[in-house]
Amino acid sequence: MINENPTPETAENPEEFTGLKLGKIKKVAAGIPAVVSSLEKVVGEAGFSRGMKALWYLNKKGGFDCPSCAWPDPDDERSGIAEYCENGARAVAKEATAKKLDAEFFSQNSISDLSKLSDYEIGGKGRIAQPMYLPKGGTHYQPISWDQAFDKIGISLNSLASPDEAIFYTSGRTSNEAAFLYQLFVREYGTNNLPDCSNMCHESSGVALGQSLGIGKGSVTLEDFYEAEVIMILGQNPGTNHPRMLTALNKAKANGAKIISINPLPETGLMGFSNPQTVKGVLNLDTTLTDLFLQVKINGDMALLKAIQILLLNQDDKSPGTVLDFDFIKNNTLGFSDFRKEVERYNPAELAQIAGIPFSQVQKAAEILQNKKKIIACWAMGLTQHKNAVDTIKEVVNLLLMKGSIGKPGAGTCPVRGHSNVQGDRTMGIYEKPSAKFLAAIEANFGFTPPQNHGYDTVEAIKAMHEGKAKVFFAMGGNFLSATPDTNFTAEALRKCQLTVQVSTKLNRSHLVHGEEAIILPCLGRSDMDMVNGENQFVSCENSMGVVQSSKGVLKPISEHLLSEPVIVCKLAKATLGTKTKINWEGYALHYDHIRQEIERTIPGFQNYNLRVREPGGFYLPNCNREGNFDTISQKAHFNLAPLPENKLQEDELVMMTIRSHDQFNTTVYGLNDRYRGIYNERRVILMNAADMSARNLNKGDVVDIFNQHAGTERIARKFIVVEYPIPEGCTATYFPETNVLVPVTSVAEKSNTPTSKHVIITLRKREP
């Protein structure tokens, strides 16, 4: 019997085991196994000729930008062998796949049947080949023409009581050109409801850096890594999430840099690296990257940082002026004396205990730092997704300011972004809280007054849909349901919408949890040629270090019924705004140079955009911190004062953080193996400390249900296999999106409103065989 009205349970992955196999935790990342895995994925999905062509042009000058992470390409010569990593190859494999989903596929597969598949199975079906429509009460998607689809969307948007009843989400894959047009359309339509994936990842970084240093971006370049004396890596797993970073760390190590890794899990890539593009790597002669590994408890980072700061202050007292950079502090900062008084209230040995680190190791970290000034601090989700995330990142900044380690070669901040153009989208104006300066530029250049009130961020958008305040949801890329917290709550919110629209390349769970009506608009991918009037158009992206470069697809699209994201936005705008628009949308769709001309007029730093973006390797955007300046009100960097977080647990409670497997990028699951962690053919696992298992009478292989109680609501993730793992006592780890159901939508970071996916309080209940 077909379930025509899916229950909330179908919003989650099915509670079925796929056959857990455990192996040894790997000591070395990359190497020949990564090469073999990459080639198998690409050839298996796209075939040899199409797959190898895609890999050849991936991240090459004149080629296309990787649709995976935002790690930068080298400024100088790029590898002639492979300027990509294993995850990049997997992403391209899925995009270049020969499998396509047409009207026949959707007629044979109901929403209910597809909902019973895992995210891995859903994502492996192939590329969506034509626009699809799900009518109210329908059980199957059915084909619809592009014109009909845009007419339906336009009618729905224009029937709302207010533009603020519509939400326009953006994923980090969207190009600069598409993102600029998208926010322009949304603001001419009349709302700032522009939530994006940054709200769930590095929003805390942007807030912290903006308030402390005057710019919400990192300050270093790739060349700075090669000059650094110390590189600190906090709450990040580059071996899986940003594998090409390992090459930069390897080069920095060869140049004499010391690497301090701070993380609850001993991640393979930070321990050892085998570069497959070198003779040493081919011979499996690995490089040990980390000099000091500090296995901090979950959210123990602030305590650790404060302990290091006190030791550095104490050492400078013994040898005045030899440890801290007082000239930099005096000339470039505010608040040092108050900061010193605040931090010296604590005992460093007690802080080390709170962090879960032996005091001798904290002393070793201070010793490494004390005589060094060229220090880079890198971080990712391990810092950003906590209630106190903004203050913790400001504590990182405090440490750099003490040492004068910002605005000089080999030193600075490096928040390592996830999706490939998430930083560029924000630069283009994808932001629910636009600045008055940006809105004034929009009005001056386009002749309409954009809305001034703030819109919904991601968490606010979920709540607004759930409360019936938002009725149309439009997603420019991404897999909103699987990326967001509180899965069942979010599913209920989406189902309350009148219309949900997804601009997508591949099938995902967000197509299966929908509003009363739903539309899928299939778009070109990065690797696809985008032919307009006989010319292959290119777009541009901004990486983690502020480099803007071109991206031009090389593969024949899998279907003739695909449109590019810029063209989709133009047609959407025309269908919605009609004669009311003041913008020449048709001109933008004819050639993307016209879009870049408008970006140049509107956004600082894009002078001569069309000329400079055509230069091999692109160009750097201005960065005040990189130039030694701070664009705060005072024009100085600010030391921050923050108390320690209270990470108290009841006797039966544990803290859980969500993580990715090695066969995964964001919500896209490429396979079922977490090779580096020695976990194979299963994702429904919970990594636990042996002492925590013993205290709960749990053994390896036992099955548990995981519970979260927050704000009066019980959340349950059923059927997870216990795996003993070297994780600090009191801490656990699980894969997302399988345990996103446990992340409360009401638990967010202060100041950034980011869901606290790295700090979820849980209890366990053993299931009987």
pLDDT < 50 runs, ≥5 residues = 1-9, 277-285
Quote the CATH topology of the largest domain: Rossmann fold
Summed over residues and divided by their number, the pLDDT gives a mean of 92
Q: How helix-rich are the residues, as a percent range?
A: 25-40%
The CATH architecture assignment of the largest domain turns out to be 3-Layer(aba) Sandwich
Total strands: 33
Radius of gyration: 25 Å
Q: What is the molecular shape?
A: globular
Distance between the termini: 29 Å
Total number of distinct structural domains: 3
Briefly, what CATH class of the largest domain? Alpha Beta
Which quaternary structure do these chains form?
Answer: single chain
> Could you describe the largest sheet, including whether it forms a barrel?
6 strands, mixed
% residues in beta strands: 15-25%
Strand order across the largest sheet: 6-5-18-17-16-7
- What is the overall number of helices? 31
Structural class assignment: alpha/beta
Keywords:
single chain, 769 residues, alpha/beta, Rossmann fold, Dimethylsulfoxide Reductase, domain 2, Barwin-like endoglucanases, 3 domains, six-stranded mixed beta sheet, six-stranded mixed barrel, 31 helices, 33 strands, 35% helix, disordered N terminus
